[in-house]
Amino acid sequence: LHPRAQERRIHQFFGEMTQYSEDLLRQAELLLRHDKRRPKQASLRRGISTCYYSLFHGLIGETSRHLFGSL
Questions:
Q1: CA dihedral sign, ordered 9, 64, 18, 31
Q2: How many other CB atoms are there within 10 angstroms of residue 39's CB atom?
Q3: What is the 3-state secondary structure (H, E, C) of 31-56?
Q4: I need a surface site. Which of 5, 9, 31, 57 has the fewest CB within 10 A?
């Protein structure tokens, strides 16, 4: 793989990771606000779990960006 093509792939990966993390946060917010009066336990648990996944993916993206530098 040509070095420039490899750089583009890594940069694309960072962008996708950031977007995925943001999408997960939006999904968590939808789950947590779905039943305002009496939320279901499953929705609350899934919302919190999705927040953790978002945090994990965001940290992985930032750590990768820090280790490999900004492309």
A1: positive
A2: 14
A3: HHHCCCCCCCHHHHHHHHHHHHHHHH
A4: 5
Whether the pTM exceeds 0.90: the reply is no
- The Cα 21–Cα 13 span in angstroms is 12
Provide the residue type at 29 as one letter. Answer: E
Q: What is the pLDDT of residues 11-22, one digit of tens each?
A: 676 667 778 888
In single-letter form, the type of residue at position 69 comes to G
What confidence tier does 10 reach under pLDDT thresholds 50, 70, 90?
Answer: low
d(CA 26, CA 6): 30
All residues at 6 or more sequence positions from 53 whose CB lies less than 8 Å from its CB, including other chains: 24
Name 68's Cβ contacts closer than 8 Å, sequence gap at least 6. 10
